[in-house]
Structures are given as structure tokens and as C-alpha cells.
Amino acid sequence: MSECFDFTRCSNSRKVYIHPMEKRFEESPQSVIYSKILKHFQESEHYTNDPNEACLFLLGIDTTDRDVRSLNYVKNVNEYIESLDQAVWNNGRNHLIYNFYHGTFPDYDDHNLNFNTGEAIIARASSSENNFFKDFDISLPLFHENHPYQIESQRLHNEPKEEKRRYLASFKGKRYVYGIGSGTRNLVHHLHNGDDIVMVTTCKHNNDWQYDRWEYDDLLSNSTFCLVPRGRRLGSFRFLETLRSGCIPVVISDSWILPFSETIDWHSAAIVVAERDALSIPELLMSTSRRRVKELRDSARDVYDGHLRSIQVISDHVLKILYKRIDNHFINMQ
Predict the structure, then answer these.
(1) Which of 14, 118, 239, 247 supports an S-S bond with 91, CB 3.0-4.6 Å?
(2) CA–CA separation, 157 vs 24, rounded Å?
(3) Do 283 and 182 belong to one domain?
């Protein structure tokens, strides 16, 4: 932050400025999610339409999907950035760039967003330890476009009753037969016993007759632990869905920086298992005490309700992290 962020812009302001879209860029794809993020900031008390009084800056163009094979991939981001007032762009300094998907077939592992991000802070899902600037970038959760937008007045799930949790652990999703992520998904497949551990996997090369027998939401709401193995990328929609259901996530995704790890103690709300140790998960979960299960479940519920329950809450927490860094800078300057 000290090398790539201009704190003087924030000495008297915590305002957010969103770069406008010229007419020639208005036909560029814009996802529902990014539209909602921008809408929230525009309607918040933090918004300003004057770049001179802004502390933080957002791009008007959508950068959330940088998979070049995706229909939502925006090709002309560099051209858009070049069209901005370069004194305001300032090589990306004090800019926050959102990204949910990076890389493409076959490895999906390239964190290059295919445009010049300059010195911007990257708020990214599927953040890897290998490409993450700690205390600068921000790790986001991956969420669907139908994730609640507004802050709801009450908790999204009630305290789950232990007797209603029929399964110790569950997972339902794709089983890749080759490529990145396939090793982990294959290990998960072999944990299935059809009784207290339900691992339902399928892929286009292998139609598993059991797949339709198990209903996804029912598994989430009736499992004590829900496995969150990596897919083609490190992050997964399943992580937030698991938390929302009141299930305890078991993360199997080496090098993944969990969402908002700068402010959330995930040790108290999730179990993280190395991919190579996936086959030991049943033994690990069966040896977890009821007291520890309750602690994990309570903490996971509080984390979800406090930080992840809506797009508004997620967006505000991004600002909270940045403002805390800024405040700490000025405190240390005294």
C-alpha cells in the first residue's frame, strides 16, 4: 500500500468515484453482478461524481469475467482505460478492480487479466497464494448473480437442529476425468458410502445413476459438513452456498486465499484439508467433537450473516477493509 497507493487522496475523503462509460463502450457486456456492485456504490453515502474529491476509484467497464472463451469477456478494456482522463487513472493507483474468473481452458490458472491493471488493487475470487499481494489485494467469495442484493432484516437461516442433519458429510458436483482439479474431484468421489457420507459426482463422460437421486439443497441442509473441493479454479460457488445453508465447509483447495481472510478467522468457521489428504476426511470429521462442531457452526453462521449474506454486505466489507488500511496508515503516521 505504501508504494502503490496515494494516501493523501484519503486524508479528508472516503469517497468512491466510478469512471463513466463513453457511448462507444456502452455495448460492451456487463454482468448482472457487476451492475449490482456499481449500483450499490452509486446509491451509497460513499459515492461522489467528482474525481477530485475521491479516495477510491472503480471502472465503469466490466472486468469480472476474464476467460477469453466466455461470452461475457470484454475485449476492449485496455481501449477503455486509454480513453479515461489519465491524470485520474494515474496508472491504476487507488483503483479497485473486480475479477471473478481468470484463465481459460485447459489450465484456467493464468491470473493475468489481459489488460493493464497498473497499480490497481485486485478484488478477486479464486485468489492464489502465488499471485496475491497480501495487505494490498482483496480475496472475494464467488457468488451467483441471484445472490441476495439487499441487506435483509433477519438471519437467512435458523439454528440447525442436530437431529435433522442426516449426513455427516456430503458433496454434489462434477467429477472431472482429466485436467486441472480432476485429481481432487476424483479423491472426493471415492469417499462415498451412501449412508452418512454422500459424494455424488458425475461428468459428461460418466453418467452416474445416483446423481439425480440426491437433491443438492437437501444435501446442504441435512449435512453437518459440506465438502468444498476446488474445481477448474480455486474458488467455488459451493463455499457460499454451504455457509448459507448452515453447513460447515470443508475446503479442499490448496493455495486458495479464503474470502476476506484479512478480517475473517476461517480457522474458527471452516475446516481446511490439503488436497493430498482428501481420503483422510472421514476419519477427521468423525473425530471432531460435538463441542467443536457447534463452535464451527455458530462461527460459520456469524461470518456469513455478518460479511457475506448479500451483495451490499460484501461490497461494504471490501470498503471496510480498505478504510481500515487507510486509517492504520494515518495512525502509524502520528
Answers:
(1) 118
(2) 45
(3) yes
Same-domain check for residues 183 and 291: yes
Q: Which of 107-121, 163-177, 248-262, 305-319 has the lowest mean pLDDT?
A: 163-177
The whole-angstrom separation of Cα 253 and Cα 122 is 20
CA distance 304 to 310: 9
Please report, for the domain that includes residue 246, its CATH number. Answer: 3.40.50.2000
Q: How far, in Å, CA of 194 to CA of 199, rounded? A: 8
- Output the nine-digit C-alpha cell for 134: 497480501
Label residue 61 exposed, middle or buried (CB < 10 Å: 0-12, 13-18, 19+).
buried
Residue range 92-127, pLDDT digits in tens: 999 999 999 999 988 888 888 999 999 999 999 999
Give the DSSP letter of residue 153.
S
d(CA 329, CA 325): 6
Residues 18-30: pLDDT tens digits?
999 988 898 898 9
Residue 299: is its pLDDT beyond 80? yes
In a domain, 156, yes or no: no
User: What pLDDT score was predicted for residue 92?
Assistant: 97
Q: What are phi and psi of 178, to 5 degrees?
A: -160, 165
**What is the number of other CB atoms lying within 10 angstroms of the CB of residue 240?**
22
Residue 134 sits in the same domain as residue 190? no
Parent domain of 174: 167-308
Q: How confident is the model at residue 203 (pLDDT cuts 50, 70, 90)?
A: low
pLDDT at 322 over 90: yes
Tell me which residue of 307, 196, 173 sits closest to 252, measured CA to CA: 173
Global pTM reads: 0.92
- Verify that 142 and 171 share a domain, yes or no: no
Backbone angles phi, psi at 101, to 5 degrees: -130, 135
- Assign 310 to helix, strand or coil: coil
187 and 97 part of one domain: no
Q: Are 142 and 123 in contact (CB under 8 A)?
A: no
The span from the CA of 227 to the CA of 189, in Å, is 11
Judge if 109 and 136 occupy the same domain.
yes
Q: How many C-alpha atoms does 25 have within 13 Å on its Cβ side?
A: 20
